[in-house]
Amino acid sequence: MIQGEKVTLPVRIRDAAVASAMFAVPAAAAQAVIAYSGLEIAEPRRGRAVCSLAFVRYADGDLGPYHEFAVAFLVRPPGAPPPSGPLGRLRGLAGVGAFIHWLPVNQPFTLEAGRTIWGFPKELADIPLDLSGRVRRCAVRFDGRTAIELAVRPGAPLPNGAGAPRLDAYSCMDGVTRRTPWEVRPSGVRMRLGGAAVRLGDHPVAEELRGLGLDRARALSTATVGHLAMTFEGAAEVRP
Amino acid sequence: MRRTALVTGAASGLGALAAQRLAAAAWDVVAVDVDEPGLARTALRSPNIHVRACDVADSGAVAAVAAEAGPVHRVVHAAGIGPLGPGLAQPLPEVERVVRVDYLGTVHVVRATLPGMLERGRGELVLFSSLGAWVPSPRSSAHSAAKAAVNAYAESLWMEHRGEGVEIRCVCPSPADGPLPRPSSEQRAAGDSAPAGTPPGAVLDAVERSLARAGELYVVPGPLAQATVLAKRYAPGLLRAFLSRATAPR
């Protein structure tokens, strides 16, 4: 029961829109940021990890309409042996999950649902975003102070059906690490190399991202999704 | 401070999506429709959507909803109906109902909200018309005529209140983009066809982009609708011939 309403699993999102950017960051520093989860950061290249920033507008879904900002890192599935050699690293990418490090939202229903059902690190913020302009823009603000701003330039259209349909989302709240099976069905996807600009404010998470060099990094790639449907199963505790 | 939006036709289609997007962006949304179950679906788990069952053809009801809503910063008037039928065969009460909902409904919503916006010197008044207002097609006489009246009304208002701080937009999506008219399956079987349209989300994106540019009036979303308006201007005979063939019963 969330705010007096019964939320049934799986939770379905019927219409969302997304803009996101991936950055290569130093693996050791990224591992230190997510050490509290007990998970191991994925290293597609030796010494480099992948940090992803995304903003999402949920229009129609089981958690109501809201805006969300996400900071995530690619992680190895718990228990998977560390890959060795360039080929092993590539093969290891097949099973990677997304560890959700920070997930501010702007509406109370999804805040409570996200924290209670999956242990997602949601907190309330003002999240103005523009997904209709030539450049997609988003800011996360607390009491008028900007924590982070992200601008993403859409790239070239990809054929529908491209992209990973199923993946695992990991989260860690109050010392408990959880895995949530997550299915995505995107359409209207555009991708490009580079194409993102990040501005960091004075929030603790912004400090962490500054420590990873995100304020001066060039994005590996950016993606925008015009229409995204998603399904979230229940979370299961994992013991890395 | 939270801004308030009034969205009509909010139980389905473009109106529902507009209400949900505004609610996602933390607006207080007064969502209006005659379809109460549809309104409840739009407002699911969204405490900042406030639903009001109201027929826009009823001027008193519209005024009451607007008065209760308080200062409204944005109006998205998407309520409309569009039953199709041959001009001579369509029952007169149906024609009158189309005019009352589509044209007079717009007048009621404008009269209930625009004076407050002008007084405050700011606001956004988004009126949904239809490509049919530019390009009538067979069997759409009542709807196209009512929407042409909406265009004329919007254009007149726009000229009367330019520079007074209120952005007025008249949005003309192609019929397939909604809100209406959408041929029923029987009508489609009888040979009516609707062009493949722009997705509703893209229609609303076009409205947002237009609102970001001050002073515009018409929003014609999508390349197909834009091409149709251009064809109407520069090759009206060719367009009429194409529409007659495309909509002729087979």
Automatic annotation (TrEMBL), chain B:
Organism of provenance: Actinomadura yumaensis
GO MF terms, alphabetically ordered: oxidoreductase activity
Ketoreductase domain residues: 3-178
InterPro entries documented for this protein: KR_dom, NAD(P)-bd_dom_sf, SDR_fam
Signal peptide span: 1-18
EC primary class: oxidoreductase
Name used for this protein in its record: SDR family NAD(P)-dependent oxidoreductase
E.C. number: 1.-.-.-
Keywords: Oxidoreductase, Signal
Gene3D superfamilies in the cross-refs: NAD(P)-binding Rossmann-like Domain
Highest taxon of the lineage: Bacteria
Region Disordered: start-end pairs: 177-202
